[in-house]
Write a structure and sequence with these properties.
The complex is a heterodimer. Chain A is α/β, with parallel strands linked by helices. Chain A contains 3 helices and 4 strands. In chain A, 22% of the residues lie in helices and 11% in strands. Chain A is globular, with a radius of gyration of 13 Å. Chain B is α/β, with parallel strands linked by helices. Chain B is globular. The chains are: A alpha/beta, B alpha/beta.
Chain lengths: 128, 401
């Protein structure tokens, strides 16, 4: 895969609602150490989802705006993000794989690494 | 139904169960995607299949003039709220449906609720059962009346795995002060993440309003969907009951220093003059409205300060019947319903600081609406609103040493 997205490893879980501007992909959570980073087109790695139940809408809106992450890699399942991705795919035909990996595997991914989405692990909640 | 099945796959559930109610958070405008979704449902003639309450929207439909943001966002936000009414949902437009007597589930009831603070309250304080239903899936559950039998619907997931004990250096006076509870919630969210914790060391029989403050803050700093407080929440008459009679995975102390640090971090303002005070996040209960009116007494809000109190339209109507809204307005407070002042621009744009008694407001408002927050207790907020400057009691945080 030549255009594999690069990993953006978040040191703390991020709530997309209140945490990402869906129009730009920018990380806007004032409490997050990586404020100012951009999630658009990246394989976002975090150990879990966090916070608001509105994050599904923010993910779908980011997909509509073309500013969504290329994939979200988590250490535990997150229904909110999986559903946001499923609705975005239904409405706009764009897939954002939400992938759950064992923590040990997740920790081997470093910031900036290209992530091969075909081989990183089974997608969870976003269809086959 | 496709979404519900997708959710079942994502959660590993082997079957679906019926729910008796739903609380839908999808009525808050987050861009055209949210309208595209509901439009598809309206076009397909969908209707909710169980009694369904609606969370806050982008606009106070009863006082639309309070909105100071982009006109287009207001129009699209209003349209979204109307679309959800068209699906048959009840226009409650509140983040605290548990404060509406006829929408409140009973102990053990299986429901599908959205809105992180409502989810935490439903599981923890009511002992009703909901998973974390985010946008879209909350609507899918309301329409189908079915959810995957997974997560907090199941007894075993409700067991505390983490014991958080207040350390001996946390003074007794602080343990019984309103101001502790949002701060404790912030610490709980940080420590627990998405795990279920049981908090030990608080006076027994804590009020719903205090537990609401804990849950709202914990669901902001973490993904807390359920917590126990020994002697206060219904599944924790004892610590052993909260642990479902098994040993905890971990026992940790919460020290005064950690609480003090969390309290300090809720203040993002750096000494700007006070221009606004925002109360009622989550939406104020009838008791809280009355307490604010009593605290104000016959004093008036300082002319340089805007005091905004958010509540549910149904709660406001009841408060009006009891004369509470008249007392609040005569003192110079403004009432906001259907939405919240950390979601959309409501407060007067100034360079000043906004004081709040809410951990959730202090957590989100700086990022969402560019506010500079000062955190204090409800009483401190009211006193400050009257004085026109920030007044806080630091002594209670100092410890006995």
């Amino acid at each position: 895969m030549t255009d594999a997205p690069r990993a953006l490893v978040l040191s703390e879980p991020l709530s997309l609602w209140g945490g990402m501007d869906p129009a730009t992909g920018e990380l806007i959570d004032a409490h997050h150490p990586q404020r100012g980073a951009n999630l658009a087109g990246r394989a976002v790695v975090m150990r879990s989802g966090r916070g608001s139940s509105s994050s599904a809408s923010v993910l779908a809106e980011a997909v509509r705006a073309g500013m969504a992450p290329a994939a979200i890699l988590l250490g535990e399942p997150d229904l909110i993000l999986s559903i946001g991705a499923a609705v975005a795919e239904e409405l706009y035909g764009v897939r954002v794989p939400v992938v759950v990996l064992p923590t040990a595997r997740l920790e081997t991914i470093h910031d900036g690494d290209p992530v091969d989405l075909d081989h990183v692990g089974p997608p969870v909640g976003n269809g086959p | 139904m496709r979404l519900v099945v997708r959710a079942a796959e994502a959660t590993g559930a082997d079957r679906l169960i019926d729910v008796t109610r739903a609380h839908v958070d999808s009525c808050l405008y987050h861009g055209e995607a949210t309208l595209d979704f509901v439009q598809r449902l309206v076009d397909g003639r969908a209707r909710v299949g169980v009694p369904t309450t609606l969370n806050v929207g982008a606009l106070d439909l009863l006082h639309p003039e309070l909105f100071r943001g982009d006109r287009r966002v207001a129009d699209r936000g209003r349209l979204l709220m109307e679309r959800y009414r068209a699906l048959g949902a009840r226009p409650t437009f509140t983040c605290a449906p548990y404060q509406l007597a006829d929408a409140r589930p009973v102990f053990g009831e299986q429901v599908a609720w959205g809105e992180s603070n409502a989810i935490a309250f439903c599981n923890s304080v009511l002992g009703a059962r909901t998973n974390r239903y985010g946008d879209f899936i909350d609507v899918a559950a309301a329409i189908t009346g079915r959810v995957p039998y997974a997560g907090f619907h199941r007894t075993e997931a409700r067991r505390a795995t983490l014991v958080l004990r207040l350390a001996a250096d946390v003074p007794a006076a602080l343990r019984d002060a309103d101001v502790l509870y949002p701060v404790l919630g912030i610490v709980l969210g940080r420590r627990a993440g998405s795990a279920v914790a049981v908090i030990d060391g608080l006076p027994l029989g804590q009020s719903e309003d205090r537990l609401k403050a804990v849950g709202a803050a914990a669901a902001s700093s973490g993904s807390v969907a359920m917590f126990h407080v020994v002697g206060s929440t219904p599944e924790a008459p004892t610590i052993d009951a909260a642990l479902q009679h098994r040993g905890p995975d971990a026992v940790e102390l919460i020290t005064l220093a950690e609480l003090r640090d969390a309290r300090n971090r809720l203040t993002s303002a750096a000494g700007e003059r006070l221009t606004a005070v925002s109360l009622g996040t989550p939406h104020a209960s009838l008791d809280e409205l009355e307490r604010i009116a009593v605290m104000l007494g016959d004093r008036r809000v300082h002319p340089d300060v805007e005091l905004l109190v958010s509540t549910a339209r149904d709660t406001m109507a009841e408060a009006a019947r009891r004369g509470i809204t008249t007392r609040l307005r005569e003192a110079g407070a403004e009432l906001l319903v259907d939405t919240c002042s950390y979601l959309v621009p409501i407060l007067r744009p100034t360079d000043g600081a906004t004081m709040t008694d809410s951990g959730k407001w202090a957590w989100y408002a700086p990022g969402n609406v560019g506010a500079r927050a000062v955190f204090g207790s409800t009483a401190e907020c009211v006193r400050s609103a009257v004085a026109g400057r920030v007044i806080r009691d630091d002594a209670i945080w100092a410890g006995s040493a």
